[in-house]
Amino acid sequence: MGHGGKDSGSIGHKNMSDELSEKELNLPIGIKLNEYLKSAGVSTYVLRETDIYYTLLERAQKANDAGATIFISIHNNSSESSAPNGTEILYNSKKNTEGKSEMDLYGIQSKDIAQNVQNEMVKSLGTHNRGIKNSPEMAVLNKTYMPAIIVEGAFLSNESDFEMMKKADYTDKYALAVAKGIIKSLNEAYK
Fold first, then answer.
1. Can you name the residues that pair with 20 across neighbouring β-strands?
2. Nearest Cα to 171, choosing from 59, 45, 24?
3. CA-based, 20 to 30 A from 91: which of 21, 107, 122, 129?
4. How many CB atoms lie within 10 A of CB 159?
5. DSSP code of 191?
6. Structure pTM?
7. Chain segment 119-139, per-residue pLDDT in tens
8. Alpha-carbon distance values, 43 to 69, 78, 82, 139, 185 (Å)
């Protein structure tokens, strides 16, 4: 779950009565996602279950130390403009020092996981499909060894997305969509 502790992430309606920070959204989504994955029999490791802060490098190192198969970072987006809206997934396809790809090592690639999660998110949330984006510059994507994605659910800076994010079912829809995309990816990897 992105952000936490001293890092609020993006803030929608800043200094207004309905102000909402990204960290307030991300934590319950991540906890719900963990519940869905565990109920489906997926072995999980959660980096944080409370409102605490880890640096990006600490997050990547914890995932590497845990020997994770997939790294998922839960986020919501923002922009200087109120126009951008929708869902996008960031990924970084990797090779290890011996030149082996993610497919060779894990049976699945970040790009495929990103596409599966993106499809489920757009279907579940009804958001604009911003697509998947190769983002090797992102620390949690380039410092983790395993396939990794960053899920950007919707835009706190967009009024339509913001209203959706305030609804009680947003957390559940987001978490279930990511879980479905991850489970589909795992099933494809182990056929």
1. 12
2. 24
3. 21
4. 12
5. -
6. 0.93
7. 999 999 999 999 999 999 999
8. 10, 31, 39, 24, 14
